[in-house]
Amino acid sequence: MSLISETLERLADKNEGALVAYVTGGDPSVDLTNKIVLGLADGGADIVEIGIPFSDPIADGPTIQAAANRALKAKTNPAKILSLVGEVKRKRTVPVVLLTYYNPVYRMGLENFFESAARFGVDGVIVPDLPIEESLEYRKAADAHDVDTVFLAAPSTSDGRLKRIASQSSGFLYLASLFGVTGTRRHLDKNLPRLVRRTRRLADKLPVCVGFGISTPTHVATVLKAGANGAIVGSALVEIVARNINRKDLPELVTRSVRKLKAATHQS
């Protein structure tokens, strides 16, 4: 059983949801990302998701696009992010998931990418622009190195295709809560609880974590009450980084925000 699966199972046994906390690697620098990620873990994030910056992040909204641009200007690349994961893993036991588009993986080569990912302690990988129909070699390489492959499902994904995505995913299924791109939202779609319940049913025993627009402790509590195993918060945390880049206490600010989000995962 992978560390991601172990973590989600342990939390479920305690009737507790998972908080998956995302930041863009290298925003504004790899060194500061290291401290921010440790801040996420110290705030109670159950799984940390680190984005490898890419020039054309089609699934991401303005907040994360801007973060990727800052990271690329700081000359961040996949090798530096993988090394960052290794540094984090030496200090914390939190599961780490990388979010990357397929181009960086392809350029490194599947075997090289997953060999490096495993060596540095990556627990799972998300590739938003890789269709499940074209993922066979990718999944084979990941499986050979015991790295979970987390695939995404949209609100419009059909029942049959959702079952197929779940059957070929490991760790958890990433359910996008809405159409469009990532970004903070004031309100969640009123149909989201129904979407979560449907996805949980079709995903069978695979845990489901919900992202896109999950921005507040109330949002976290809502998706978990609907039956999700975890809530993924990204843009809200990236905005904190963007607003406070020059503050020396940025990691502490992140820790405090994550602590509030994590408190919402304790289900009664």
What report would you give on this structure?
The chain is an alpha/beta fold and 268 residues long. The chain is built from 12 helices and 9 strands. The protein has one domain: TIM Barrel (Alpha-Beta Barrel). β8, α10 and β9 (230-233) form a beta-alpha-beta unit. The longest helix has 14 residues, at 30-43. It starts with a helix and ends in a 5-residue tail after the last helix. The relative contact order is 0.18.
- Report the principal-axis shape: globular
The CATH first-level class comes to Alpha Beta
Strand order of the largest sheet: 5-4-3-2-1-9-8-7-6
Name the CATH homologous superfamily: Aldolase class I
Tally of DSSP helical segments: 12
Main sheet attributes: strand count, strand direction, barrel closure: 9 strands, parallel
Number of strands: 9
Q: Could you outline the blueprint of secondary structure elements for this entry?
A:
Blueprint: H1 3-13, E1 18-24, H2 30-43, E2 47-51, H3 62-73, H4 78-91, E3 96-99, H5 102-108, H6 110-120, E4 124-126, H7 136-144, E5 148-150, E6 152-153, H8 159-167, E7 173-176, H9 192-203, E8 208-211, H10 217-225, E9 230-233, H11 235-243, H12 250-263
Parallel strand pairs: 1-2, 1-9, 2-3, 3-4, 4-5, 6-7, 7-8, 8-9
Helix pairs in contact: 2-4, 2-12, 4-6, 5-6, 6-7
